[in-house]
Amino acid sequence: MRALHSWTDASATILVEGLQCPLRVLHMTDVHLGLIDERDAEYVDRCQGCEERFLHRHQNLDDHGHPLPARAAYAQILASFADQGLDLIALTGDIVDIPMQASVDYALAKLEATGAPFLYTAGNHDWLYPVEEDGILDMEALRTRGWPVLEPLHGGAPAGAVRDIGGVRFLSIDNSTYQITAEQLEFASTSLAAGLATVILTHIPLSIPTLRPPTIEIMAGSILLADPGWSMEERR
User: Fold this and answer.
1) Is 0.85 surpassed by the pTM of this model?
2) In Å, what is the CA distance from 176 to each residue of 49, 68, 92, 196?
3) How far apart are the C-alpha atoms of 88 and 85, rounded to whole Å?
4) Which segments within the chain are labelled E, that is strand?
5) pLDDT tens across 149-196, in order?
6) Is 74 helix (H, G, I), strand (E, B) or coil?
7) Among the residues of 30-83, which ranges form H helices?
8) Angle formed at CA 45 by CA 43 and CA 47, multiple of 5 degrees
């Protein structure tokens, strides 16, 4: 099966041999919604204003050239694609900055308003509760705690899910702890064995030759799944 890729700053076109019809997919990542209300009252003091940490780290601007808050940018982008016949909205993590119910509710409401199906996998911020302890974080424990709050987005399949659309398989794998489990590896291997053209959705990039140089350039380190240059100590 052959595939040819081309892209601009705003879109990518993937030509896949044998497909019977075109697919239109909106990919969103790292929105970092930071809404919080009385349902998570114990975290209000530590989480108020967390959305502003990312205010100047994106290119979404209002009519006056000022950066849009995360919630406004997210809502505007989804609304602008609502009538464009999307086959899927692919969400690859850090959609919320902290696993607060208000953020998850907002994310879901704007997705549902588009009428398009979506497939979500978590990033490390989606489940990262504010912690005060010093030292190494127990990422598996924090993710296990956050997954239930995120269920409206992952639909009860947080570790991984498959969606087949128009002859293309979309495979989400939660690698937000910078690794995957043996069960996830088996799930991915079985999914890939079907032989369909597959789009793999993860938060942490995979260590392959085409992704490695740009990731290192942007992140100042080899933060890629299974990268030989990224030691376990550095991951902690």
Assistant:
1) yes
2) 24, 26, 10, 25
3) 9
4) 3-7, 12-16, 25-28, 88-92, 118-121, 160-165, 168-173, 197-201
5) 999 999 999 999 999 999 999 999 999 998 899 999 999 999 999 999
6) helix
7) 44-47, 70-81
8) 65
